Amino acid sequence: CLSRATLESADHVRRALFCAGLSLQITAKKGKFMPELVHCLHEIVALVHSQDADDAWFVAPLKAFVKSKATTFPTLALDATTDGLDADAVSAAIFHSTYVLLMWLTTIRLAATQYASVASFVELFAPLHTLLSQIKAKSLKVQAEETLALLTKLTDASLKQRRPLRLQAHAPTVLPTFVPRFDENYAMRKDKTMERDKAQLKQLQRQVKRERKGASRELKRDAAFLSRQRTEEHNVWRAEKDAKQKEIRGWMEHQNATFNQQVRKGGELIKGGGSGPAKKRRISKK
């Protein structure tokens, strides 16, 4: 995230500028605003004015490049290889590179142009304008003149477009007015102040609504009554069926008990569980 990125080396600054340029290209057509991008640019510009020993990795090489009185700024490749450049050349290349995605000043100009329509443009880019205008090195100040001129122009245009805050304009609400009609037997009703035709129409609509509700209630009552009747008939049928089955089972048990009783008593008629006359024992003739 650009808002939380820590700048601890020249490679970190280069990656942050690459992400900032890439974000500007992606959001250019959509018109989206990224406040973390402006914050990241502010942190990078602040490195030029840093007096802290922790940021000497950027300030010291840049000062060394300024003291060398070089006429042209070195270039920086898109990849991470910096073998051909020393420390002061790397810092100077980051300050003003010839590659679009890694341009520091060019990235600031692109961001300012893209966010010129933001209402808080002045508050966003005023710190950047202040830091760039405070650069004392002549070679660096010359390179930042174009960016300063653009920021000044866009700031003035943004201030001219501002208008004082005011309440939203709304059309006055027209209150309905009625002509009261009083008589001796006056009673407040919904349709008292309406025209005759409208009052009759409203009355008929209310009557239809009442009739519809009444019919719905009657249908619900009939459905509940029919449901109770079906339940009662089913219960009666079930009770009769259970009684009939109980009677049949009782008769069968009674018959079975009678047969068993005859078997226990013995006799010639019933032997075992059969129902026919018992056969006589065969006597041998020998």
Share of helix, binned: 55-70%
> Could you state the order of secondary-structure elements as H and E?
HHHHHHHH
Instruction: Work out the radius of gyration.
Output: 52 Å
Strand content: under 5%
- Overall 3D geometry? elongated
Q: Report the mean per-residue pLDDT as an integer.
A: 75
Q: In terms of per-residue confidence, which ranges show pLDDT below 50 for 5 or more consecutive residues?
A: 74-85, 95-102
Number of helices: 8
Compute the number of strand runs: 0
Largest sheet: none
What is the terminal-to-terminal distance?
126 Å
Number of domains: 2
Topology:
Blueprint: H1 10-27, H2 35-46, H3 56-67, H4 87-95, H5 104-114, H6 121-133, H7 138-161, H8 196-265
Helix pairs in contact: 1-2, 1-5, 2-5, 2-6, 3-4, 5-7, 6-7
Give a verbal description of the structure.
59% of the residues lie in helices and 0% in strands. It is mostly helical and 286 residues long. It has 2 domains: 137 residues; 73 residues. Helix 1 packs parallel to helix 5, helix 3 packs across helix 4 and helix 5 packs parallel to helix 7. The longest helix has 70 residues. About 7% of the residues have low confidence.
Question: Briefly, what is this?
Answer:
With 286 residues, the chain is mostly helical.
Which key phrases capture this entry?
single chain, 59% helix, 286 residues
